[in-house]
């Protein structure tokens, strides 16, 4: 398989004894890869034509210190949403024209940027550059364990039996199962379902009992890896935090009667999905809205010519409206069903209910959440405006 090069590999391509200048912008635009001669290592176009995207999300200097040779903006890019770009472009000036320049941008940056494709001699060995320096909240083992317990833990595993004998816990739902039940209840077509931001996949597995094809997409590679492991092996061991340093090993178990071959798990961004992903009988969007940078983009993707939801299909959405500025700028917050409905112009609201559920941190600390569940049906007469 082919991939992008890593920052380390870009250093290998360089020939430190050769340099040239684009004085007076003699080259006024991007040129072909072989326009200029190859360097002494026989590599073309290493510097000065277009910026080159790297596999690395982040490759920190030792101690996360700023770079000594230029104004380094990389320290603020520990969010797993930026990739390193190297090599400069024909129009780079100042510190951007330095061979030491290494910048970070989100993938939507396309000005004067290109790709250098790499094929490893050792075949299918995966490149792990993207894992360097990741600090995404949802990529930690602690968060993975917490979600595995919420999705797959039995009641006696989530709520301490000893404490249970002295107090009464609030009656709560298992949110992943509750979402699957809403889909089964309201979806007319039984072919395809998209579980968008599926976490560790419990809803997708529950839907595989009824539907023919389920696609589970999540932004977290760690979550998707866990879901795939459960799909392939049927079990996955994880750790439950009890108190202080006390922990318990628990095994998530998939019901063997579930048709796991009907499910496909993929890493993806709810705000940037491929256009050929469309026409589902149902889409599940569970507690995702208030963690998106611009939720209206995701909601608009449900409708139109390439809508995720087919005409006559449904959108099952839950949200506690717990907006936080570190995830979503305040001018993009949606504070009511009406705000959501104003965006979903192809849909009619057909059901609404409150669903209480709990996320366990440890045996004596839980997050109690009341999420608003709504079901929206896309009109048969809806067309792209």
UniProtKB/TrEMBL annotation:
Top-rank taxon: Eukaryota
Signal peptide: none
Occurrences of domain Methyltransferase type (ranges): 194-316
Residue span(s) of domain Sulfatase-modifying factor enzyme-like: 22-118
Family, similarity comment: Belongs to the sulfatase-modifying factor family.
Database matches in NCBIfam families: ovoA_Cterm
Designated name of the protein: Uncharacterized protein
PANTHER family tied to this protein: METHYLTRANSFERASE TYPE 11 DOMAIN-CONTAINING PROTEIN, PTHR45445
């Amino acid at each position: 398989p082919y991939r992008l090069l890593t920052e380390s590999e870009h250093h290998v391509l360089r020939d430190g004894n050769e340099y040239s200048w684009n004085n007076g912008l003699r080259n006024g635009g991007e040129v072909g890869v072989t326009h200029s001669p190859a360097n002494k290592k026989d590599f073309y176009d290493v510097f000065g034509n277009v910026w080159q995207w790297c596999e690395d999300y982040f490759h920190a200097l030792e101690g996360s210190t700023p770079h000594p040779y230029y104004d380094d903006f990389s320290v603020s890019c520990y969010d797993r949403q930026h990739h390193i770009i190297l090599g400069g472009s024909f129009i780079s000036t100042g510190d951007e024209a330095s061979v030491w320049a290494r910048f970070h941008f989100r993938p939507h940056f396309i000005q004067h940027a290109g790709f250098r494709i790499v094929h490893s001699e050792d075949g299918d060995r995966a490149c792990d550059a993207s894992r360097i320096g990741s600090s995404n909240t949802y990529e930690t083992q602690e968060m993975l364990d917490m979600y595995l317990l919420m999705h797959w833990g039995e009641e006696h595993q989530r709520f301490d039996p000893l404490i249970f004998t002295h107090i009464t816990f609030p009656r709560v739902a298992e949110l992943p199962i509750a979402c699957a039940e809403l889909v089964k209840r309201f979806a007319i077509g039984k072919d395809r379902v998209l579980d968008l931001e599926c976490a560790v996949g419990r809803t997708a597995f529950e839907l595989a009992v009824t539907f023919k094809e389920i696609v589970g997409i999540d932004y977290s590679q760690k979550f998707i890896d866990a879901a795939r492991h459960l799909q392939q092996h049927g079990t996955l061991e994880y750790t439950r935090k009890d108190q202080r340093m006390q922990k318990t090993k628990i095994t998530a178990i998939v019901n063997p009667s579930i048709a796991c071959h009907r499910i496909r798990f993929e890493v993806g961004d709810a705000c940037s999905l491929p256009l050929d992903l469309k026409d589902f009988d149902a889409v599940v969007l569970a507690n995702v809205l208030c963690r998106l940078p611009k939720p209206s983009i995701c909601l608009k993707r449900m409708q139109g010519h390439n809508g995720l939801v087919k005409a006559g299909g449904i959108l099952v959405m839950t949200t506690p409206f717990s907006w936080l500025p570190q995830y979503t700028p305040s001018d993009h917050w949606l504070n009511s069903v009406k705000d959501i409905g104003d965006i979903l112009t192809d849909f009619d609201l057909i059901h609404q209910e409150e669903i209480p559920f709990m996320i366990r941190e440890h045996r004596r600390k839980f997050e109690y959440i009341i999420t608003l569940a709504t079901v929206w049906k896309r009109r048969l007469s809806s067309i792209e405006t």
